[in-house]
Structures are given as C-alpha cells and as structure tokens.
Design a protein that fits this description.
Layout lengths: L1 E2 L18 E7 L4 H17 L5 H19 L3 E7 L3 E8 L25 H8 L2 E6 L4 E8 L29 E5 L5 E4 L1 H7 L3 H4 L8 E2 L10 H6 L2 E9 L5 E12 L5 E9 L28 H6 L7 H15 L4 E7 L5 E8 L3 H4 L3 E3 L14 E3 L19 E9 L2 E10 L7 H45 L4 H12 L6 E6 L8 E7 L5 H9 L13 E2 L2 H17 L12 H10 L4 E8 L2 E9 L8 H37 L12 E7 L10 E9 L2 E9 L4 H19 L4 H13 L8 E10 L5 E8 L5 E3 L5 E3 L18 E5 L4 E5 L1 H4 L2 E2 L2 E2 L1 H9 L7 H15 L8 E7 L7
Antiparallel strand pairs: 1-5, 2-3, 3-4, 4-6, 5-6, 7-8, 7-12, 9-10, 10-11, 11-12, 13-14, 13-18, 14-15, 16-17, 17-18, 19-20, 19-23, 21-22, 22-23, 24-35, 25-26, 26-27, 27-28, 28-31, 29-30, 29-32, 32-35, 33-34
Organism: Streptomyces huasconensis
InterPro entries: Bact_Sigma-Reg, GAF, GAF-like_dom_sf, HATPase_C_sf, HATPase_dom, PAS, PAS-like_dom_sf, PAS_fold
Protein name: SpoIIE family protein phosphatase
C-alpha cells in the first residue's frame, strides 16, 4: 500500500476500525458512460449526508479514479463511500491488480497533469487529506479521505495563535495620537505621538480646523464627513490625515465627545495607523438606542449585533440579512447591496429588499458613474431628492424612491462593494445617517469579502467538476447532431433557462439556427418559432459574452400584438395561435440574452446563445464558465464537422474501389461477402471483381494487398481497374498479371505486395463451366464436389509486386454440375483465437458441410464459421467469393 502521507503505512484518521456512521456502495460497468454515473452517485450520496463543502473535490477525484478503472484498466469499478463524524473516505477498486501505479514517494515521474490519463493520483495528492493504494490478488483499490471543515461551536471569526515571528510588524512602538478639538472644530491639543505620526509640531496645528488636515475617505482635498463625526457622542472609523510630506496617512480613529467643568464641549480624538486599528477598535458603541445605533448595552460583537446570531453561513443569506438590517436601522423603504467585480470597474447587485429583486438581481452599474463626489461608488453619497437629479442612481429608476444614502465596503483600502438605503420620501437622509451606515459597512465588509471568496472557491471547484464532465461528454462523440444536443443540455438549466445554437457552414454562409432547448419542454416550439423570425446575431469573433436584445424585443412585440388582437384592436387571431403561448414565450425570453462565439481553428463556426426569463441577469461567474464551455464545445463541434466531411469523402472514395454490382452469369451462381477491417473502412487491402470480358466469357478476381488502410486501398483500385482494362483488350491471364505486376512496381515506394487469384470462366451448354486460373501467391481456391470431397483447384505461383521478370502460366479445369468453387483471402484462413488458427484445413472442413447449398448459402456459412472461431473483432480484411454450377443435389 502507498499513501499520500510519506512514511505512513496505515490509515490513521478513518480506517475500517473507525466508527462508520453511514456507507453507500455501487458497481459500474467498464463503459465510458459509467464515469458520469459514478460522479452522480458520489454527488448524491454526499449531498444526502449534508457534506456539501467537500462534494466538488470528491466528484473530481472519483471521476479520475473511475476513469482509470473502466477506461484504462478496462474492468468494472466498485465505489464505496464511508462516513464518520469528521471525515469521508471513498474507495475505488478495479479488477486489474497487475496494473501497478507509481508510488508518490518514489522517483517515478507521474507525468504531466495535462496528458489524457494518469492524473488521478496527482489530484489525490493535491485535494485529499489522505490517500493510498491497496493491492490484493484480485483487486487494486485506490482510496482518498476528505476531512470535514472544523467549525468550533460559537466561533464565527477568530485569528489563529501565531508564533512571534509571524505577528505583524509595528513601526518601533505603537503611537497613539491624542488630539482635542474645540466646539468650533479647531485643534487645541496635539501630543508627541501626533507629531511623530504626522510630522507637524504642535505650534503648527494648534488653532487650525482638523478639516484642513483630514481627507475623507482617504482622498486628498475632501473633508466632508469629519465635522459631522466630531459632533457625535462617540464614533469610530477610518479616514486619512495629510502629513507634512503631503501624502495621506490612513488612520483608524476613535472620537469621544466630552465637556469641561464649565460645560464647554470638545472632542477627544485617538488615532493610530490603520493597520494597527486593533489598538482602538472596540465592539462597544456608545450611542443610545433612540439614535438607531448598531449596538446593544451588553453586546460584545457589533457584527453579530447588526447581522444577528447565528450569522448566515452562505453569502446570499449574509447579504440578504445585511440589507434587511440596514433598511431597518435607517428606517428606510428599501435597501440594496452590490459587490465589485475583480477589476473594480463595475458593481453587481447581489441582494435587495423593497425593490423588484428579480429585475435587479445581478444587474450591473459602473463604479465611476460620473464626475463629482457622488459620481463614484468609492465614496459615501447622500441624495436628498432623486427627482432633482434624474438618473443619479440608475438602480432606483422607476422604483418610486426619492432619497438614498450609499456607502462603500472596503477591505484593506480596496473597494469590495456598496451598501445603500433608500426611502420614498425626500430629505430623509443626511451625513449623520451616512456615518452610521458607514460604521455598519466597515464592520461587515471583511465578513462579506470572506464569504464572497468562499463562494468563488466553491464555484471554481464546481466549475472544474462541471468542465471535467462536459469535456468527457463532448469528447465521447464525433456526431454533429449529438454534439449540438450535448452543448444545449449542458447549459440548460445549469447555466441558463434556455439555449440556442447557431452554426455557420463556411465563411460566406449565414448563421443557421441548428438547435433550441428550454428547461420547459412545452416552450421549445414557441421559442424556436420566435428565433426563426428574427435575424441571427452577428458572428463576431471577439471572445466573451455580449448582450443580444433582439429576442427580448421580438417577444415583447409579439406579446403586445397578441394582447391587442384579443381586445379587438388588431388583426384577427388565426387558428393555432393563442394568447397563452405567445405570452409564455415572451416571459421565457424576456430577460437578459447573451451570445458567445464558437471559435475553432481561428474561424467562427457558430454562436452559443443563452437566455434568462423576464427581468433576470447573468452572473459574471456564470458567463466566465459559459465562455470556457463554449471554447470546448466549439472545438468538439468543429471536430465533428471535420470527421463527418472526411468520413463522407472516405466512404465515397472507398465505394469507387468496389465493383458497382455483380453480373448475372447464365448457368452459374455467384455470391460475394466482403468485410474491411477497421472502424469506418468500407474498402481495405482485399478486393474482388466479377465482370464480362466478351460474349460468353467472364473474368473474376480476388486479391489481397499487403497491409491495410488508405495505402493498400490505393493499390486495390489500381489492380481492379487494370484487370478489367487488360482483360477486355484480349490479353490472357498470364499476360494480364504480368502487366499488372509492372504497373505495381512502377509505383515505387508506394507499391505493395499483391497476392491475386485471377480467372476466366465460360459457361457450357451441358451445364458445366470451363475455367482458366492463375494463382499468383494467393490462397488456393477450393473445389467442393457433390460427394462432399474438397480439393485445391490450382497450383501456387509467385506473388505480384516483388520481381520484374515474372513468368506465369494458367491452368484449365472444368466445374461439373453441382460443384462449388470457393475463393477467399488470407483474412479468412488466418483467423486466430489465441494460438489457434482456422487455416486451410479448418476452411476445408467447414466447406465439406456445404454440399447442396446455394452459392450465397455457402458464402454465409463460411463467414459465420470465421466469425464464431474467435471472439475478437477481425484484424484483417476478408473477402469470400463463391461460384456454383447448379446440378442435381443429393437428398
């Protein structure tokens, strides 16, 4: 046994002796579809056990190991899932114990992860907690173990205990600037730590407003918000102080409002560098409940107080709880939360309350919407009345909201999202509400970002599993129509509600609607009819998804016309049309529609169109996954097209090498059976022919070119056409073969050895037939008499394509009534099963059982005997030519 933990010979965490709380087992046949079935079995099992955190890793590993078993080892695969309290172990065994695999700790190279097979152990080493291999006399078992995430009871966010050398480095000592601000906002106290932090001596700043030094938020030249913060009884948050060197220093501040003995109010400000905020940050907030504070008297964690306990573990739940609490905190009518894209250029709506969420969900707005302070989502913004600035907040257009406050969510100075609260009445919000909402945003930003990263990781692993399965399915077929169906079925409903695939035959052709699929089968016909009436999308090769509005517009127009007709305001409705059908189609395609180009070998071969129902949008992660799928699907579709074209060309050329048909010979029965070796081959190195030479004379031939495939087929065509031409020019058998030998030798390096049996046949009035035969290196023809005796019917002579000076002769003989002449190629006599071979004697023995049979029955019996002799598919071409002179058969 080898293990993923070097030096460990036994499984310590989850062995057979551990407490197993559940088990599930299944066996999968050694066929390609079993890989997908095994993935579904493991996914369903772990989801049923509630282990969704490890499902994607388990599915990917199972896919690789089952592929090794059923595809590479070629045996059935047994999959066993074992559950314990803190881990899951999955075992995959096959019936091929001799097929060893390298140990991880050995020096054997496990290969590139990009090659077709053998990645199972590399993935085990990368994803599994433990793994190993067991060998038995009858089985080889590969197992892996995935530990369940450890979640201590009551723990939400905690930092690990770190060694001293891993703790963050402070600049010398932690400096706490103590600054006191009077009623007017001017500085009247400035300690030494403030001088060290910001570079100003006390006499330089005493009497100056703090607003002159402060930047809010972290932006030089803006001071909005600091004056308001200084007026609150207590406030904590981040902003920037411009130092004497001119740069903004990010600080974390704690403000406390006090009054002296004479009742004069002032504000004491404690400031530290922002990366040392733990010195000042406190879970308590001293505002009164009447002011709508975020904390409670005995609260210890402002995040828990704001979100509630227990906090949702999933991102969508956390975001939805956030917007609901934010709306309640500011007594708003609606709230929304947007998350930033990776490049921080756009914000995507991820949660809302009080708004039409179906329409708003996953909609996008730019981070920098315009000039000015309120034009950037990176800064807090308060709009007292949206009717005065139409379009200032596009997200709220048409919702009836009049006033809104928005604040950024930031983690380590990077914009990660935006939180907003809106109300139907104007003038509901001021800078004070912005500060309170910013206070909440500062405390949830890190939790939201952590949850978002966790979701992205799960999506990444889920995407990996999805693409693994998609690649398997697409690689499993070279049929164009089946590839189109697979493309659509993989996207619906996983990525989209409906899908349409357009194909482009060549660069000058228009896109053609090839396949349409909707998750509701009853809507497919209406969707197909709608798409067929509008112009297809432009075949733009630019990668990525682009919006296509034509389907939605056409659906809405069709629904409008139908509604008008139903009210008697338009043309009468025709039979077969219905309001319900048109309206349901409009609802099905009324959402966002995107088009992804299918590009293969630097050419656009089609478009993949994905759509959502009314008022729904695509997530960026889904579009990125669809783009990955479209690249794989495009290559698979182009491979299917190339395969179909080449198969059509190959089959057309191969058919041209076969005789167009067998002539009717008076007084002689003739039948032929031909089998070419290899998938998709109709003609190989073996060939036959039967043709009239002149009145009363017929030529026949059966031959075998050395080798198989296209090269042998080329010589086949040369030989068959040369035989007909030379025979009809009046040459006898030896002369025909001698000239054919010269033609083969003239081919040079493309020439092939050729064994050939050529003969001419003359039916006689007495019911017999006279034959002249030349057997050039070919298996001898066999004659079956009416009494059941079998004998060779010619003498062997040299084969063709070897020597220049070839001297051949022909033999003349007569077939009596009731006799059968059997001619075969060596693919028949050399049929093998292990060390056994049918041979000439075996063929003669089968032929003795064919007395009294027609020529067709003789050929069929010989072929059945050859096929039954071995279980494997034939590896050589086979041709059987049977000729029989009818006569009196024995009873």
């Amino acid at each position: 046994m080898s293990s993923g933990d070097p030096g460990v010979d036994t499984v310590e965490t989850l062995t057979r002796s551990a407490v197993i709380t559940a088990r599930a087992a299944a066996t999968f046949d050694p066929v390609g579809r079993s890989v997908a079935t095994a993935r579904s079995f493991v996914r369903d099992t772990l989801q049923g056990w509630g282990f969704t955190d490890i499902v994607d890793d388990a599915v990917v590993l199972t896919s690789e190991l089952v592929t090794n078993a059923v595809v590479h080892a070629g045996t059935a695969a047994d999959v066993l899932c074992l559950r314990s309290e803190d881990a899951v172990r999955i075992e995959v065994s096959d019936r091929y114990p001799e097929r060893e695999i390298p140990l991880q700790q050995s020096s054997v190279n496990m290969g590139s992860p990009d090659r077709e097979g053998g990645r199972g152990l590399q993935l085990c080493a990368a994803l599994a907690t433990r793994w190993g291999v067991d060998y038995t006399p009858t089985h080889k078992l590969v197992w892996f173990q995935l530990d369940l995430p450890h979640r201590p009871v009551g723990t939400r966010t905690a930092g690990p205990a770190l060694p001293a050398d891993l703790l963050p480095v402070a600049d010398g000592r932690v400096r706490v600037a103590v600054i006191q601000i009077d009623r007017a906002g001017a500085i009247n106290a400035w300690n030494e730590d403030a001088e060290d932090l910001f570079g100003y001596a006390a006499e330089q700043v005493i009497g100056k407003p703090l607003n002159d030094l402060a930047a809010w938020p972290h932006t030089p030249g803006t001071s909005t918000g600091i004056a308001e913060a200084l007026q609150l009884s207590r406030w904590e948050g981040s902003y920037g102080i411009r130092g004497s060197h001119g740069r903004v220093i990010p600080v974390y501040a704690s403000h406390l409002r006090v009054r002296d003995n004479e009742g004069e109010p002032s504000t004491v400000c404690l400031l530290v560098r922002d990366d040392e905020r733990a010195v000042l940050q406190t879970p308590l907030r001293g505002a009164t409940p009447e002011q709508g504070t975020l904390s409670e008297p005995n609260a210890t964690d402002p995040f828990e107080v704001f979100i509630g306990s227990p906090a949702p573990e999933d991102l969508d739940g956390l975001l939805q709880r956030t917007v609901e609490r934010a709306r309640d905190m500011l007594d708003g009518d609606a709230a929304f939360l947007l998350l930033a894209t990776d490049d921080e250029t756009e914000l995507e709506v991820r949660a809302s309350t009080g708004l039409p969420s179906a329409r708003q969900r996953f909609a996008r707005v730019p981070v920098e919407a315009g000039p000015g302070r309120y034009g950037s989502a990176r800064m807090p913004a308060v709009h007292e009345d949206l009717t005065l600035v139409p379009g200032a907040v596009p997200l709220l257009s048409g919702t009836g909201m009049r006033s809104v406050v928005t604040v950024p969510l930031k983690v380590e100075g990077r914009l990660t999202g935006s939180l907003g609260v809106a109300a139907e009445a104007p003038d509901r919000y001021s800078n004070e509400e912005a500060l309170r909402l910013q206070f909440a945003a500062d405390r949830i930003a890190l939790a939201v970002e952590s949850a978002r990263l966790g979701e992205l990781e799960r999506l990444r692993r889920g995407s990996l599993s999805f693409l693994v399965e998609a690649s398997d399915l697409l690689a499993g077929t070279l049929d164009r129509d089946q590839t189109l169906a697979l493309m659509a079925q993989m996207t619906v409903p996983t990525l989209a509600t409906w899908c349409a695939v357009y194909t482009i035959a060549d660069q000058s052709a228009e896109p053609y609607l090839s396949y349409v699929l909707h998750e509701d089968e009853e809507r497919i016909d209406g969707l197909k009819a709608l798409l067929s009436k509008i112009d297809p999308p432009d075949p733009v090769p630019t990668p990525g998804a682009r919006i296509w509005g034509a389907p939605s517009e056409a659906a809405h127009q069709a629904a409008l016309r139908t509604s008008m007709r139903s009210l008697g305001l338009g043309e009468p409705m025709t039979l077969g049309s219905g309001i319900g059908t048109t309206l349901s189609t409009a609802s099905a395609v009324g959402g966002e529609t995107v088009v992804l180009p299918l590009v293969a070998r630097n050419r656009v071969i089609g478009m993949l169109t994905l759509g959502k129902p009314s008022d729904e949008h695509f997530r960026q992660e889904i579009l990125e996954l669809a783009e990955d799928l479209s690249r794989r699907a495009a290559l698979a579709l182009d491979n299917a097209r190339l395969y179909s074209e080449r198969m059509a060309i190959s089959q057309s050329l191969q058919r041209s090498l076969l005789p167009p048909g067998l002539p009717q010979i008076p007084g002689v029965e003739v039948d032929v059976i031909y089998r070419a070796a290899g998938e998709g081959n109709e003609v190989g190195g073996d060939f036959y022919d039967l043709f009239p030479i002149r009145d009363g004379a017929y030529g026949f031939a059966i031959g075998d070119v050395c080798g198989t495939g296209p090269e042998a087929a080329a010589v086949t065509g040369l030989a068959r056409h040369a035989l007909r031409l030379l025979a009809r020019e009046g040459f006898g058998g030896p002369a025909v073969l001698e000239r054919l030998n010269a033609a083969i030798l003239d081919e040079g390096s493309r020439s092939r050895f050729l064994t050939l049996l050529y003969g001419e046949l003359w039916p006689q009035e007495d019911g017999s037939a006279v034959l002249k035969i030349v057997c050039a290196g070919h298996p001898l023809p066999l004659r079956l008499r009416q009494d059941g005796t079998v004998e060779p019917y010619a003498e062997p002579q040299p084969l063709l394509g070897v020597m220049d000076d070839l001297e051949l002769y022909e033999e003349t003989m007569t077939l009596d009534p009731g006799d059968v002449l059997l001619c075969v190629t060596d693919g028949v006599t050399e049929r093998r099963e292990g060390t056994r071979m049918l041979g000439d004697d075996g063929l003669a023995e089968v032929l003795t059982t064919c007395t009294g049979l027609t020529a067709g029955a003789v050929a069929a019996r010989i072929m059945r005997a050859v096929e039954r002799f071995a279980s494997d598919a034939p590896s050589d071409d086979m041709a059987i030519l049977a000729m029989r002179v009818p006569g009196l058969e024995k009873d």
